[in-house]
Design a protein that fits this description.
The chain has 217 residues and is an alpha/beta fold. The protein has 6 helices and 12 strands. The longest helix has 20 residues.
Length: 217
């Protein structure tokens, strides 16, 4: 796996991440969602540099011009519900991409720290020979992405996989490196060192789904 980590780069991404982490700002749900969307746009731009390109001819009022444009064969899959703003940011750049949605949530059987990831819904076109883009704002343990990858087994084999995340933990990144194909790319805006006993990123930012859309039962 190739990891594109923008943690240590000086860019506007740092402003968006700082606002999302800051407890005095993050409760503005509209701003929080907008920052996720904008991060999706920036990471999509970076990802676009690695895609395959083809030559097309643009006809202007005064002539013709050959231009290099990306071959858009993307299927963008977002993990409900926290990834929806990230999905929108990606579509702002790749507006002709196909779309997929999957539900994945943590289930604590005995109420303790141990959990399993439950996937019970997937709506997707075939991904056979296409470029699959998985969006997961918080890459904590990597178990969610592992189960999402398994859920796609019946939908074909992609030629390449890209993962777009906002904040990840080093243990989770190391885990998905061990299970995803070698030609997978991870695009991530920030990386934190630790997970707590319940598998949440430290310092992280909290629950991205709740901060975006309100608390759930």
């Amino acid at each position: 796996m190739t990891v594109h980590d923008f943690s240590n780069e000086k860019s506007i991404l740092n402003q968006f991440i700082m606002e999302m982490r800051n407890v005095s700002i993050q409760n503005d749900s509209m701003r929080f969602r907008k920052n996720i969307e904008r991060i999706g746009e920036v990471l999509s731009f970076e990802m676009s540099k690695t895609l395959q390109y083809k030559t097309e001819i643009a006809t202007t009022p005064f002539g013709k011009k050959e231009m290099q444009v990306p071959e858009i064969d993307l299927v963008v899959c977002s993990i409900l519900r926290a990834a929806l703003p990230l999905h929108n940011g990606i579509l702002n750049f790749f507006d002709t991409a196909e779309n997929a949605f999957i539900s994945a949530y943590r289930h604590h059987p005995d109420g303790g720290d141990d959990f399993e990831v439950i996937v019970n819904y997937l709506a997707s076109p075939s991904i056979e020979g296409k470029t699959l883009v998985l969006t997961d704002p918080m890459l904590a343990t990597g178990k969610t992405l592992e189960n999402v990858l398994k859920a796609f087994n019946s939908h074909g084999t992609p030629k390449q996989i890209h993962i777009i995340s906002i904040i990840g933990a080093k243990p989770g990144i190391e885990y998905i490196e061990s299970i995803f194909p070698k030609n997978t790319h991870l695009w991530i805006a920030a990386v934190d060192d630790q997970l707590n006993n319940r598998g949440y990123i430290i310092p992280g930012l909290g629950d991205a789904g709740d901060l975006s859309f309100g608390q759930k039962l």
